[in-house]
Write a structure and sequence with these properties.
Elements lengths: L10 H4 L2 H15 L4 H8 L30 H4 L14 H5 L9 E6 L5 E4 H5 L5 E8 L4 E11 H8 L7 E6 L17 E5 H5 L4 E6 L2 E2 L9 E3 L12 E7 L6 H5 L23 E4 L8 E4 L7 H4 L13
Parallel strand pairs: 1-10, 4-11
Antiparallel strand pairs: 1-2, 3-4, 4-7, 5-6, 5-10, 7-8, 7-9, 11-12
Bound molecules: ligand MTE.
Length: 320
């Protein structure tokens, strides 16, 4: 999977006018957070190494606050990561992902869509005002965090892309150009994930550009990822370079690797154990590693009111 450099079609041509104007306004406010040198380098078109996180200063406060749990300390959220492209230990991505070059960045939108196109990440970030949503985020490995993610509903982006009625699923493919990542063996790269169209369109599914009010750290999947808060964390693909609309359930990395352990749906479900461990409880990640706190896991990670109806009539033990 090669990284395409820059948009092949000018943003003004591929984006409906009102979205383009919103983008310009949003982009200006994002750029106010950049240092003068960074702006100059970007304007001159110089390639530059992944920038340190930049403050996002146009965020709308979320209505999805999680009142029952404390927010995970930022340092923890950015140093305890799964991003296998950069190593298998939780501490590896923070150590190794500085080699990821997040600028220029572009995303290919392809498959069953009216007009396939390639769009740069700034344009995508500017489609809609971003809001901050504090979401519970639970990994299949039975730990969880509470993170303020910054982005806007993926549904808004999908609508702007105008998929064909035959598009039933959305596939997300992560960068794996073989130069910037370690790409350990045993996994077939690039990382691939997918959602059913109604899941992708659910207002909770967030196209994510930042966390804690800053652009994503490389180890969190900069510059663009998805967050699907009612599913195990592996459904939330990082550093996305392709969004593909398809008519059949797409192949997904962990499902291909071990289908008996990682299903396509992977809704957080305390009553369906992982074959090697229980999913009934989770360890809250906070700064206190000596006395970790365990809490019962909630069905759909606590988002049942917003998502359960999508699975009415489905056997969630079979469709794990
Ligand atoms: N995306 C890519 N491209 N590569 C990965 O290894 N790991 C997944 C998911 N997305 C992964 C990925 C898993 S297993 C989890 S739990 C979450 O990212 C972790 O996200 P975080 O590091 O922001 O907590």
């Amino acid at each position: 999977m090669l990284l395409r450099t820059g948009a092949e079609i000018p943003s003004s041509e591929i984006t409906p006018k009102e979205l383009y104007e919103a983008f310009q306004a949003n982009r200006r406010s994002v750029l106010t957070g950049l240092g003068a040198m960074g702006v100059a380098a970007a304007a001159a078109g110089f390639p530059r190494m992944a920038a340190a996180e930049t403050k996002l200063n146009n965020l709308v406060e979320t209505k999805y606050a999680v009142p029952d749990r404390a927010t995970t300390p930022e340092a923890k959220a950015k140093s305890y990561n799964n991003f296998y492209e950069f190593g298998e230990d939780k501490s590896d991505p923070a150590k190794n992902a500085h080699t990821l070059r997040t600028r220029p960045w572009s995303v290919k939108v392809e498959g069953l869509v009216q007009k396939p196109r390639t769009i740069d990440d700034d344009t995508i970030a500017g489609y809609r005002p971003m809001e901050q949503r504090v979401y519970r985020f639970r990994c299949v490995e039975a730990w969880s965090m509470v993170i303020p993610w910054d982005g806007y509903p993926l549904a808004e982006f999908i609508k702007a892309m105008d998929p064909l009625p035959s598009a039933k699923y959305v596939q997300f493919i992560s960068l794996a150009d073989g130069k910037q990542e370690l790409l350990p063996g045993g996994i077939e790269w690039p990382y691939s994930e997918g959602l059913r169209m109604d899941e992708a369109m659910n207002p909770l599914t967030l196209l994510t550009f930042g966390s804690y009010g800053e652009t994503l750290a490389n180890q969190q999947g900069a510059p663009i990822r998805v967050i699907v808060p009612w599913k195990y964390g592996f459904k939330s693909a990082k550093s996305i370079v392709t969004i593909r609309f398809v008519d059949k359930q797409p192949p997904t990395t962990w499902n291909e690797l071990a289908a008996n352990e990682y299903g396509f749906y992977s809704n957080v479900n305390p009553s369906v154990d992982h074959p090697r461990w229980s999913q009934a409880h989770e360890r809250l990640l906070n700064s206190n590693t000596i006395f970790p706190k365990y809490v019962p896991t909630l069905m759909f990670n606590g988002y049942g009111d917003q998502v359960a109806s999508m699975y009415a009539g489905m056997d969630l033990k079979k469709n794990y």
